[in-house]
Batch of 2 targets.
Target 1
Amino acid sequence: MIKKRLRFEKTDRAKYISHLDLMRTFQHSFIRAGIAIKHTEGFNPHPYISIALPLSLGCESFCEVLDIELDAETPDIAGALNPWLPEGIKIISEAEPISKVGMIKYVRCRVSLVYDDARAADRVEALRTLFASKPLVVQKKTKRGMADIDLAENISEVQVTSPADNIAQIEAVISAAEPAINPTNLADAVKNAGGELTPDFVSCARLEIYDKNMKIFA
Amino acid sequence: MKNKAEVDTRFALCFPDTYEIGMSNLGMKILYGVLNNLDGVWCERVFEPWRDMSDEMKAAGIPLWALESGDPVKDFDIIGFSVGYEMSFLGVLDILALSGIPLRSAERTELTPLVFAGGACMYNAEPIADFIDLAVIGEGEQADLEVTELYRRAKKLGWTKTEFLREAAKIRGVYVPSLYSVDYAPDGTISAITPHDGAPERVTKRIIEDLDSSFFPTDIIVPSTEIVHDRAVLEIFRGCIRGCRFCQAGYVYRPIRSKKCSTLVKQGIELLKKSGYEEISLSSLSTSDYRALGELCDGLLDWCEPRKASLSLPSLRADNFSMEIMKKVQKVRKSGLTFAPEAGSQRLRDVINKNVTEEDILNSCRTAFEGGWNGVKLYFMMGLPTETDEDILAIADLAFKVLNTWKKYASNKNRGVRITVSTSCFVPKPMTPFQWEAQDTMEEFRRKQKLLKDNMRSGAITYNWHDSEVSFIEAVLALGDRRLSPVIESVYKKAGGLAAWEEYFSETAWEEAFAENGIDPAFYANRARSLDEILPWSIIDTGVTQAHLLRERELSREAKTSPNCREKCSGCGARRLDAEGRCDD
């Protein structure tokens, strides 16, 4: 059994490809690249391809994890696969998996708040204060409906900056599992604060994933 | 992708419906390929955006763009539409309007942009005659290139639009609506269609004579989102030997031209390799009539099986459905099974020349149930010529017999059975022996649907039916003339595009538009035409003669069938389209 773990980016327009469509795109791309993926046995065979932590539609990522099983040892998967992937999706490294996917615990993320009035810098202090407040409760959709969740307990290393006149940027480490915090939950906290802080547009990105010891997941 | 700076002609290949539908269309893939094979021409795709998107575009003042370059469609040289469904006429207007291109041909006085259309609906292009500059009748692989080359010449030499259109009308298969005037009798029927400025008396459809050497796309664009037919599609032959009298495709795609098995295996494997699809579907009007089907399946499966790719065979007939073929295709994945008896009673199946017996249907179902299938879909049409309530009730009887067949022969009854009966509303189509027929009224359809629903007595049988409102408009448009152009324009202004979609189909908009333009839609949909009436599409020649259509119509009235084309050639006339007179050779 040959297992491989690929790290890939999903950026620019590719952020609008949904998780299921992404799975399908990878399936097609492996075939086009001539890489034989192992299939399940049985009545309706499907390829062993899985994505560790499905990404929300519209969110970019620089640290996605794709696990595959191959029929034969294949050197340079990235080199073979990248030409077939859509613009914005790129394999950046490949290795044998070390940890189980369940070991993923934290994600470093970036939330960019766009303010059309180009006065983003004026809001940095207020945003810092907001993310220092305890508790910081937002509503989160769960399998059992909406639930309250305290961001303060599940967020660390918060940095607020203004890299451009119209952008205020929050970078933070959030819990990726139990509970799973989504970068958009941070944006929700800002929207709930309302008033001057209400952004005109929000974009999110995942920057890195870690295990429970804050070691980069591999 | 091509470089803008290196081309002189920009072609926007437009599909007047959504991306998910248009990207599934084989014709689009073929034409996209042949047009981009021309040096100096860059062909790009354009689809109709969903309403939320077009609303945002309008609000932000962003005109519709082509997908490859992102450039506005209005800056293209040629805007070509592929129109395969009457309700997409609204989509044509939607794409033009969202692009900021004047809707009417007469309002576009310059050569550029040239707006034309092709596809099955162009056998009667009259309802959109006011909007398009020209229509290509028949298969577009060569004719579209000829139109494009003529345009390039015209652009280079500085021809006016009028000069170009007069010249274009000389290309075989090109119909220029503005070069024909239509006169009407006091009763509203057409009294004369007169060509002007050298336009031909009759426009003969184009065909590709040799499909083996004709371009077939294997280097296709693979969407990153799921489309409706998300699989590789391999076209195996054109035309159909069956001659079902309601079926426009069966008449207009004649003569019968098959691809060689060796060509198909080669193209199919290449298509799977290059697209990365794990499923390949054979495309034709009647898959099981492909002579070398077994050999073709073997050739493809040899490649597919070890790679876990599956093969699907749509359009199987109930009379020659074989266990052998079925076993072949279910080796990798088992798909659903659908039969289309079209009519419930033998008499009515003979009227439409379906040439399928109840025994055929039940035998096929038995084969399927014995082979482990536990569901079957049965398609029927309502409102076929001469139909009575007895014929409607026969649909329920047949469904019941299928259920009994399952009870008697199913190899595995634990999982239960699902029998789905679907009825559509018959729309008489131009170029068929039923082109003179009246469609049932909407009330009549509803009554028949209720009658059938009340007589479907088993919980194992699900009955679905199409709403008659849409089918009524389909009939008006299919059988319509150019007096409908203003109606279509006002429906577009009231209700927008995407008219084929339940969400956006507006019966009220149609009713108002008919009333405002003084048009009685029943004149088109519910009126039986006399056999000597000049029909709006009578200047179009599909190769099939009027005499043949009349003969078939006569036989239908006597509930007599015609042999299929392989048993006996009925001399329909379509052979004439081939330089050597070949058909199914």
Target 2
Amino acid sequence: MINNPIGFLSLSKREILRFFSVSSQTIFPPLISSTLFILIFGVAIGSRVDFGISGLSYLAFIVPGLMTMHLISGSYENTSSSLFIARWHNHIQEMLLSPLSYFEMVLGLLAGGVARGIVVSTGVFLISCFFTPIGIYHFFWLIYFVLMISVIFSCAGMMAALWAEDFGMLNVWHVYAIIPLVLLGGVFHPIEFLPEWLQTFSHLNPMLYLVSGIRYSMTGVTQIPMGICASIAFLMAIISFYFTVYLFRIGYKLRS
Amino acid sequence: MRNSEIAISLKGLTKYYQDLKALDDVSFDVKRGDFFAFLGPNGAGKTTTINAITGLSNYQDGEVKVFGYNAKTEYTRTRPLIGLCAQEFNFDPFLNIHQLLVYQAGYFGILPKVAAKRADELLNRFQLSEKRNVKHRALSGGMKKRLLLCRALIHEPEILILDEPTAGCDLELKFLIWDYLVQLNKEGKTIFLTTHYMEEAEKLCKTIGIINHGHIVRIGEKKAVLQDKSLQDVFLEVTGLE
């Protein structure tokens, strides 16, 4: 599968160093916004809410949701900006002229997205520990869902970067599709709190299963069977990965 | 690398940009160790041909082989054999020029220690050592040209493809590049050069190919192509630009 390990590692390293080199734009903003979410919704409002979901405080309920939200944003933004800037400046040729296979190219870019998602969501977790005792209920599932989610949205970022013709188009999917679906997927609320018609819609929203997977891994509380969440996450990850490799193989907006 | 005496082989290469036929059944071979000048007016199909050879462009029909390997289906084998010095300055803005070369070498499977040594040698050879820790934006146009060459050579390719390498260069840099290309060719590297400077092609090259409107209109050894005329006269005659 990987025939050029040094090439793959070089690309991965470059992708990871890139987001660390601009950490004021890539790592600190989500940590600051998460701290504010936790303070305002979790501490100030949440402490006055009679939540009543399996003995969880509202703060403990929203932390996994916030982690998922930033895992998704971090992964998506990393690959979308890196690949789009490479297309924009045309230094993507450095990669396209190399003997990296298309599979290795996608995997190398993916490494940056996955790493950034993990760094940011781990940061959100550590910050939340200052406000509420929160543990990890099921470590295996947590690793599984973090990897699956970051792969899905790193690939989504690459697809957006290939599709976009300018910086405005780059954010269209994020702003108009991903973020609304994530918020409706139960970051801040159990879906049982929604009107019945919206609950039906929520079950069609794939984000619900991803947020629920992370929440179960951390709290042991879930309204959806884990097998369903894990299967949906796996399917989405596989489809998005191979579709991205396919786009590279046909040279979609990469080759004239 | 296969033991092929043909470095680059194009057969029936045809490429459309929507309705425009940019390359029309282009076929020719470039021998191993040749110094090949590929000439043509603007928009004739020079860069499109280069892009097809390097894999930067899709094409609708035909076949490109590099030392016997198919450039489409065996691209992981053909790409290490080619170094491309493109026309435009397309460098990664996040890296300094030394890192840029080391990462580029890494993509070709070269270990970082070896890559760093090679990068130092090339930067020294092209008088860029003092700038090794700056980003490409801080370089002058001539320095960027030299950096393009360093990047094309970092993985020690068998074939060096140069798309107008001396365009906009002062005389000193032009001579530096010419000397280095002649030296590389003597060492056995195959050079594929496009240029608008006829004296450059006439002075350096052993074989000349001229393309016009996507067709090869003249190709052969320098003597046979020139037939006691100047290259400029031949060029004007076959392209109809007189």
